[in-house]
Protein 1
Amino acid sequence: MSTEVISSAPAIRTVKYTAKHALEPLNAEEITGAANLVKSVWPSQTDIHFKVVTLHEPPKADVIPYLEAEHSGRPLPFIARKVFVNYYIRNTNRFHEAIVNLSNGTVERNVRLGANVHANGDGDEIVAIENAALADEGVKAELQKLQLPEGAVVISDPWIYGADGVDDDNRMYQCFLYLRDTQNPNELDSNHYSLPLPISPVLTTDNMRVIRIDRLPTGADNTITETKPWQFRPVNEYIPEAQQLRTDLKPLNVLQPEGASFTIKSQGLSNIIEWQKWSFRVGYNQREGMVLYDVRYDNRSLFYRLSLSDMNIPYADPRHPFHKKSAFDLGDAGAGIMANNLKLGCDCLGSISYLDAVLANDKGEPFPMENVVCIHEQDAGIGWKHTNYRTGRAAVVRNRELVLQMIITVSNYEYILAFMFDQAGQLTYEVRATGILSTQPIDDGVDVPFGTRVHPGVLAVHHQHIFSLRVDPFLEGVNNRLVYDEAHALPRSDWNPHGTGYEVHETVIDKSGGYDADWSKNRIFKIQNAAVRNPINGKPVAYKIHAPPFQKILSDSDSFNYKRAEFADRNIYVTQYRDGELYAGGQYTNQSRGGTGVRSWADRRDNVRDEDIVVWVQFGINHVPRIEDFPVMPCEILKVSFKPVNFFDKNPALDVPPSEQSFNKSVLVNNAQQHAQPDGAGEAKVGENGQVCCSSKL
Amino acid sequence: MSTEVISSAPAIRTVKYTAKHALEPLNAEEITGAANLVKSVWPSQTDIHFKVVTLHEPPKADVIPYLEAEHSGRPLPFIARKVFVNYYIRNTNRFHEAIVNLSNGTVERNVRLGANVHANGDGDEIVAIENAALADEGVKAELQKLQLPEGAVVISDPWIYGADGVDDDNRMYQCFLYLRDTQNPNELDSNHYSLPLPISPVLTTDNMRVIRIDRLPTGADNTITETKPWQFRPVNEYIPEAQQLRTDLKPLNVLQPEGASFTIKSQGLSNIIEWQKWSFRVGYNQREGMVLYDVRYDNRSLFYRLSLSDMNIPYADPRHPFHKKSAFDLGDAGAGIMANNLKLGCDCLGSISYLDAVLANDKGEPFPMENVVCIHEQDAGIGWKHTNYRTGRAAVVRNRELVLQMIITVSNYEYILAFMFDQAGQLTYEVRATGILSTQPIDDGVDVPFGTRVHPGVLAVHHQHIFSLRVDPFLEGVNNRLVYDEAHALPRSDWNPHGTGYEVHETVIDKSGGYDADWSKNRIFKIQNAAVRNPINGKPVAYKIHAPPFQKILSDSDSFNYKRAEFADRNIYVTQYRDGELYAGGQYTNQSRGGTGVRSWADRRDNVRDEDIVVWVQFGINHVPRIEDFPVMPCEILKVSFKPVNFFDKNPALDVPPSEQSFNKSVLVNNAQQHAQPDGAGEAKVGENGQVCCSSKL
């Protein structure tokens, strides 16, 4: 990557910025200040197209003592406040990376990035691409051939171009075209994905010009036909007005009459959440969305930083131009900037708090986003139970969870991303994939083995969703290790004469690299602190990782897809910590070449035993569409959990108060009449001393 | 298995029994009637020890037309009402199997079962074994050597003996002994599992005599020492009085002000549940607990019968007597008889209905069990969502689920077993393992690779939990097939020049057998009806199976454990349907030899392609105890899901009404003040026409 350094101009002025904490996201003043400083190194009429204006997180070596001071109430050491900026000179390919130091008002670094390094998209740009594509004379001429009905409305979804090494050095977008319902073209929310068109313009983004118009194969093979008149197809709508809605669903409300159990302490734009012995700081940025810092349980440190690092969605159709459809939704667009506004009562149920964010627009101005994260409790069923069969006395507690949730819309797809905490020291990251499949046209009577017909004329191609969760542990200290346990059957011997014995053995991982799950051995990865021992059984304190299995990226190892999605070939990567190594697919994913992500860092073969390590947990699904996934798919749910192992001295949820009717206020539903009894009717007797009320008979 | 047939006595009288449906569980009259008929073939003073008195389900060939008549409102054909009975002549080993025909008042079959075929335990027997063990003079003498403090109370947990082929033809129980807290011996609910003793009496159950007193190895090897004075150990209590309970958990109530959305139509002791287009009949019996019959969605048939078939829990310690610890909790004891009474407000949250059951005691008398199944709805987060980024309009629905839940206590362990239904045609079976680890004594300073020390002096040995769910499909008809899909990368070629293409191919399973998952190929099993095609894409209607991976049984293939747990070596078994093949581990599991379960049936290599098939889905965990699992473990959750694939013509949850604040009534929690706003404050604006209220900004 060649760079061209522009000397930094002298500071214009030093402004005192108002961040409350070194890890707090940039506030509006800081965004504006950083943008101004960047502009100040250029001639004054230069139109700067800002792509990223985000906190440049301080070095961990500075943050650790800062957090120690914070937790022990000492004065906070000084840490320079820095901003990471990506920008173009507007309407050119001159792409830059800058570091702005707000504390001393300087631009510390300002380099032009070289060939094949491109920026993410941004909202205004996506709209401009769509407009340019549809205004292009060549595209209009091609659309003419479709002989669309009067008043038909064509929609263009710009897609990242992908990479295949074929004349792809320029920054381009591949637009996929769709039709709004021809019988209802004024319905702005018509599901155009159910009416895909066989024409796909390609634009270069420096000049917003259509450089090529691809025609899409619509049969079973590579054949591209001349654009023919469009054959009428019915639309397939998801909006509620188009449905015969169910009328028999009764309301279900979640009430917390005494309020919620969590507290939120705001420090500027970051928030410290405390709940049931958990404490952590929530941040937010354009690329990762929610980030958790300084996660502790009962004031024992667990994680330095937790975030979704990226996701890759490669598609299975080998034909041009689909062969290069491979999205990196964080690096190519940004989870934070694509977050939904979670208005009360729709997305989150119960007693809800919301967090707002401030990001930046393409002019470097602050761009406020409200309600991007919702926080609430939920009941997750029974937490633990035991009944003594001799006495019939049951001890039972419910599992209350804390949920921090955001929802991102990436054109057609939605992802619901949540961190969840329970009362037994367990932390879970949950992803729900929903929204609309990416579609392309297919001729009638054609079936292909790389996709599913989900509507007349509509093919949904198979694709993989591969997520990478970046886990920067701080398990009772900065030096941790990654180990795995395996269970092995013992051979027959005098020691094991009946062939039933088995043992569990632990292997320590010494060197950075990629590692896989192996259920045939019950391989479980754990993050440990070997220097801190459980007081009862002497084992190192640890947290184990429960992640679901997934088929690794199917693109072959010589492919651009594989080289770019450096995380997608392993269940686990572990690297030695280095500042700035945040994104598993590399810093710049758009039309990337690979070589700058987690696989490359792991190839350093650094020592990771009793070191400052980072663990990257991959998980995902191979999405083979079924017709039930259209026109919008029911959520597909994936969870990664972190559970304590010999970290505590007993079940950490033992002190949760017993589950009792006086607290829970359940209601007996009378079968015959089907309406709820008034509160109190049909209740179990609660003992005078608040005894656990359940008994069992055997 | 040799049998001795006893000729059936002539009918004493014909009583008209009152069952409403051929699949309804036996009612009290029928249990009494069947028991009387069995007694009637013996001399009148014969003391019959009843072990099982349960519905002998009619042949499927009779039930299918019966259900068709039921669903089309025609008169129901006659089906003889039969009862399956197991019994001993009390205090002998003479174990019998009988079939009683209540419709004509005859005993149709009455055979004595041969060697190595033994009955399950029963509640009164377990208590008698415990008493006999503790009253035995030899046991008392051995306990004397412990020199326990004054007033100490010893508890005995009888365990199934297991099988190892070493002098194990008699029916025996292995008692594990524990101590109640010596400083609080009057606490009846003291956690004796935290104070295990090194003495283990073995009893034969025909005469309730101690035949052997095993001493347990407590070191790292096979060494058995003389019983030494007991060294004081602290107890580890789970009851709430012993905890410093949290005081900061605020109540969370689930309200359904208009009642629940499900209806329950009782027919005698069975119940027809209808909810959100689902309909099914719930039965209940001693061995399986809850059974679902005739499961339909929108009146399209899906499953003939669904039930937990058995579970096997083999332990890892190779030393005597632990090598033979391998429990079959359904066959050895019975899920139905061990179910908890789910009193309102403790186990299930919200608007709850309960189902009761009637089983039989060891005298053949009806034994009513109340509240064994709870039924309620729950909110499971967002069902689906899409936001049109151009307009900001979101369409979102919540996922409401119906839950049928029971909880069983098997001595120390609990299992929470639930069937869950959602609004997108998905059915899930969920198991939560909780309760108390099985423990044994260990010397200080000793570590072993087959267990974890969870408390001073307490070893919890590794063990596997392997469950088998019996799935008898009826997907749009009785003839179904089991197939699997795999995703394969395409090789490089002109067709796939960039190495990114992949295809999904389906393989049909022709012959019965065991089959495994393979995530490297994304192998997904589906139950299909090849004769019924999706109207849009022509694919056969199907339901796919999502089951988590698990390490197969580690006991080697020559071991008794392996031979007995016939289901535990494969993710999937598929067999051709035969009446009576219900239990994957065989009809009689207690001290069994194997050869009578699903592996043996599958070995027939019957045709299963477009046949009446049964699919057995195995799942489980290798439980490597951590200290957080003691003194009671936080629930470990396992789920198996069945999802429609090309069964519908679009997302079946599309017609769920939009998620709106007027329906959900969420409440904004004010961060600064931490109490809930009164209803209405902070609400999002809901459009006049009840429009979906959410918008998002990009």
Protein 2
Amino acid sequence: MNQKHFARPLAKLIAELSRLPGVGGKTAQRLAFHILEMEEKEALSLAGAIADAKRNMRRCSECGDLTDREPCAVCADAARDRSVICVVESPRDVAAIERLREFNGLFHVLHGAISPMDGIGPEDINIKQLLVRLRSNDEAVEVILATNPTVEGEATAMYIARLVKPAGIKVTRIAHGVPVGGDLEYADEVTLARAMEGRREL
Amino acid sequence: MNQKHFARPLAKLIAELSRLPGVGGKTAQRLAFHILEMEEKEALSLAGAIADAKRNMRRCSECGDLTDREPCAVCADAARDRSVICVVESPRDVAAIERLREFNGLFHVLHGAISPMDGIGPEDINIKQLLVRLRSNDEAVEVILATNPTVEGEATAMYIARLVKPAGIKVTRIAHGVPVGGDLEYADEVTLARAMEGRREL
């Protein structure tokens, strides 16, 4: 879309917004004009929230989830069951499972999945740290593999299972209650709960 | 959506994003996580673009359009035909008409439309400045009313027409009719009636 007639700060804002996922040219324009019509305080509050979140949110050195403290709230919570670790691909998946209020164990965020097609190998995601955690955690009894039900997610689950099982730790995979080919993040809560409940040992 | 488990900077970012038009809770979450996974430079660039646009874009004192200079690029352009002024409701409408590259006159942005239901009267939108412009512009020959084809837009057009016509300036309204490329059978009755009414000899 031609933006020649837009003043430079506006054109820049539209360009930046259209880099967000699911935001096309028209949506970016709509958002940009809306931002310009917001109260200055509100707009700066949005800008500040982006900068603050980016500056203050780090990966927890324990589990890899995004957090503003070290270790993260889940890892630091004494009431959490340290014998179960749920392995997920992304912080979004942690949020989805936490929303259930049914899982009380710990998490481990891989930040991706093994995908040879995209040149992503086991060493490119947060697997090594999982093994370090399991080695130093005598309480660990079970690892739940909650990677996405996609080819990459399955491959990643298989890979981790092969590494962890020899240590005598039970390895389970969430049940295929989640639609195959879908994204964990978009599963409805009942489906996700069923999947957690129906996990099977690998 | 419960965000209790989100770290505060993330929860704040999600809250700010979900105030944007068309951005619900799930979309705000998706955008927030995406922003956290962006390069720091990119995220700060987005935040900066919002703050800069908000700080540097003002209403042109002439036409009311959003601009980073005074007067705006259109008002300052000597090649523009100063005898025609196109009145629109919002800066978005200016962008839409500029995109056509067919109109070479000036604009006037009302920043809204008269809407008694919402308590918006003629004095709440940028009408007074239009009259000031017309009085000081001897070249003005035609005012094109390009407000939206809604009840409020029509009422606003009628109101402005009544004020401007006595000054001997031609007042026109953009045509209402069936959209080009559309299907006659799907046009609503009011639009179709207007299209019939506004028929022209070929």
